[in-house]
Amino acid sequence: MNQHLYLRAYMAGVVVPTVLLLAGFSVFVIARFVYHVPAPIERLLVFPLVIVPNAFGLWNMLYVVQRPHWHVPIGLHGAALPFVLGPMGLVLGSELGFLRMTGNGIIWFEIVHIPIWLVCVIPFLGIAGYYLIWKYLVGFLNRVQGIE
Question: Which of 147, 24, 133, 16 is nearest to 79 (CA)?
Fold first, then answer.
């Protein structure tokens, strides 16, 4: 079962965000077209739908590559991914014009104001969420694929 180890690692990493993004996309579509939420959600979904699943797959491949040399628990390895994706998302959101940073917080789509205290809390929630996703979901898929 050692054949195509990196391909199996990539696929195990891609499954979780793909399923979660499908559920999130369904909620956004209902909000946009049924409840007529005025936010241009299409622009928001470009980053998560394109980057996040591939980042999970590549990050899982990196876990498999570095595991024999430096063993880090998979939850901690996954908790480091927001440190890569977070800055990329902020830069992309700012450049696309749906995220603006002010002295009081972040303004999202010129509609939602996120206060500075919440901006300071959200990264910790993201890191905790990624830790749990990687420890339980991606770790489970790695075991099913015979990677761990």
Answer: 133
